[in-house]
């Protein structure tokens, strides 16, 4: 049955080291190439001033080149070509022969990636309209589907094949375009998309690798290879994208990441034979569907909320604004670094939790998810308590003391307050100042305990 046959290791058949070794080699090649070209893109972008102007919705203050997607693309291409032509020479055995047995799939992936990167770079430099970008995304996704990278079945506790070739093509295009835009929507903080990509694809790589153990699927499969080279590209790019970032991946990198994540998920989900599913094991039967959604839970949530928000306001669903989840985290009081870590946490808890259904009884997995989600929620909402403490302190302070201390703008309930700027995210110093003002002083006093991780960022 499925859980035993597909997800349990056969003790009489020891795990070979060759698959892991060559996946790591592919990831390493992608990482090294991506890093080298990221440095080159940063230097060229800085030298020739290829950084676009800062937009109202941006959170960075210095113009920064957005050419990182080119470096990631080159890393992915070189790693795939190495696995195709170089690895057989190194190993003496063509381990990836089944992956490249249908070269049209690899060529379609590379062609679609090239289309996406070109569209993304042009948009990063000259700001294309959303209809042109969407048309390019549809063409790239259509190329994938046309060459056979398609959803052909949906494993829901039994055999559920996609109705026709036309339906398969349409569903594939919709899925790829949806994931591309979902990933692109969260690309607003330094290191966010690259880190989420590493975490989510690391989990998905384990799943795709375990799925192939002891079944008709070979250790060397397309989904695992794409995931490995994408992880490598993100690792190579991340050092230049860590806060404060020297280089952004731009739309080219975000859309490329989304396209490759969608492709790897389709390669697994769309080709599993649901007829082998054990109906008594309902949760494992849903893993091929749930896990791709779980690793994209944050991007998909942000995408869904953005579409609803913009459509309800009578705007295009692809119009830009400053109300994404990462913007809201900053407005709540999180620092840039803390907001990125929160996204990492949510992604890790949900994706790892879904993967654990493969290995552990359901009750332990639900316990892990419950504890993890509660911890993430507490950390996410923590700054609200500081904001409320500051508001309460300012409201209780004498008006003259609050104005002299420069914290009167945190009193959002006082309509008569001469607010000259929108209330920002209160820092630890703001909290000290507010408490001092309530005590009748006009300068901060160390009433509150010191915090070794004090927030020193300037707040708009």
Molecular structure report:
- The structure is a single chain.
- The protein has helices spanning 2-7, 18-47, 68-91, 103-126, 130-146, 165-185, 192-211, 222-241, 250-269, 282-294, 297-312, 325-332, 336-356, 362-396, 399-405, 428-438.
- Helix 3 (68-91) crosses helix 8 (222-241), helix 4 runs antiparallel to helix 9 (250-269) and helix 14 packs across helix 16.
- The protein has 2 domains: 2-321 and 340-358, no CATH class; 360-460, no CATH class.
- The chain contains 16 helices and no strands.
- It is mostly helical.
- The model is unreliable at 1-15, 274-282, 413-422 and 441-460 (pLDDT under 50).
- The relative contact order is 0.11.
| End-to-end Cα distance | 58 Å
Approximate shape: globular
Structural class: mainly alpha
Share of helix among residues?
A: 55-70%
Spans of 5+ residues with little confidence (pLDDT < 50)? 1-15, 274-282, 413-422, 441-460
Q: What is the rounded Rg? A: 25 Å
How many H/I helical runs?
Answer: 16
Number of domains: 2
Order of helices and strands: HHHHHHHHHHHHHHHH
Number of strands: 0
Percent of residues in β-strands: under 5%
Largest sheet: none
**Mean pLDDT value:** 77
SSE arrangement:
Elements lengths: L1 H6 L10 H30 L20 H24 L11 H24 L3 H17 L18 H21 L6 H20 L10 H20 L8 H20 L12 H13 L2 H16 L12 H8 L3 H21 L5 H35 L2 H7 L22 H11 L22
Helix pairs in contact: 2-3, 2-8, 3-4, 3-8, 3-9, 4-5, 4-9, 5-6, 6-9, 6-11, 7-8, 7-9, 7-13, 8-9, 10-13, 13-14, 14-16, 15-16
């Amino acid at each position: 049955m499925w859980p035993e046959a597909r997800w349990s290791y056969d003790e009489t058949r020891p795990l070979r080291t060759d698959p892991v070794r060559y996946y790591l080699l592919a990831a390493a090649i992608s990482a090294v190439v991506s890093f080298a070209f990221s440095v080159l893109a940063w230097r060229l972008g800085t030298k020739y001033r290829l950084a676009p102007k800062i937009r109202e919705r941006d959170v960075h203050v210095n113009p920064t080149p957005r050419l990182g997607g080119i470096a990631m693309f080159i890393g992915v291409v070189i790693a795939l070509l190495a696995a195709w032509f170089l690895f057989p020479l190194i190993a003496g055995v063509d381990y990836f022969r089944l992956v490249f047995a249908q070269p049209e799939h690899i060529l379609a992936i590379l062609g679609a990636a090239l289309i996406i990167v070109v569209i993304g770079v042009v948009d990063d430099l000259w700001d294309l309209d959303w209809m042109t970008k969407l048309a390019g995304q549809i063409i790239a996704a259509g190329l994938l589907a046309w060459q056979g990278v398609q959803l052909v079945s949906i494993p829901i506790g039994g055999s559920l094949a996609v109705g026709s070739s036309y339906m398969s093509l349409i569903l594939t295009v919709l899925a790829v375009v949806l994931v591309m835009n979902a990933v692109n929507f969260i690309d607003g903080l330094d290191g966010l998309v690259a880190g989420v990509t590493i975490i989510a694809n690391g989990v998905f790589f384990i799943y795709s690798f375990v799925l192939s153990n002891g079944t008709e699927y070979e250790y060397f499969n397309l989904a695992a290879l794409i995931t490995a080279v994408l992880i490598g590209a993100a690792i190579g790019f991340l050092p230049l994208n860590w806060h404060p970032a020297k280089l952004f991946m731009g739309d080219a990198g975000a859309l490329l990441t989304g396209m490759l994540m969608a492709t790897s998920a389709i390669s697994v989900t769309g080709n599993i034979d649901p007829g082998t599913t054990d109906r008594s094991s309902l949760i494992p039967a849903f893993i091929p569907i749930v896990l791709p959604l779980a690793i994209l839970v944050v991007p998909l949530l942000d995408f869904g909320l953005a579409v609803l928000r913009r459509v309800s306001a009578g705007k295009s669903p692809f119009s830009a604004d400053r109300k994404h989840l990462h913007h809201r985290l900053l407005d709540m009081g999180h620092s840039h670094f803390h907001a990125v870590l929160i996204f990492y946490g949510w992604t890790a808890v949900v994706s790892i939790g879904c993967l654990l259904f493969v290995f552990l009884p359901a009750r332990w997995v639900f316990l892990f998810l419950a504890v993890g989600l509660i911890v993430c929620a507490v950390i996410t909402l923590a700054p609200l308590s500081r904001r409320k403490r500051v508001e309460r302190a300012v409201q209780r302070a004498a008006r003259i003391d609050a104005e002299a201390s420069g914290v009167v703008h945190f009193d959002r309930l006082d309509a008569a307050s001469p607010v000259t700027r929108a209330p920002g995210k209160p820092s630890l110093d703001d909290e000290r100042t507010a408490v001092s003002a309530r005590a009748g002083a006009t300068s901060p006093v160390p009433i509150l305990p010191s915090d070794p991780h004090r927030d020193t960022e300037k707040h708009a």
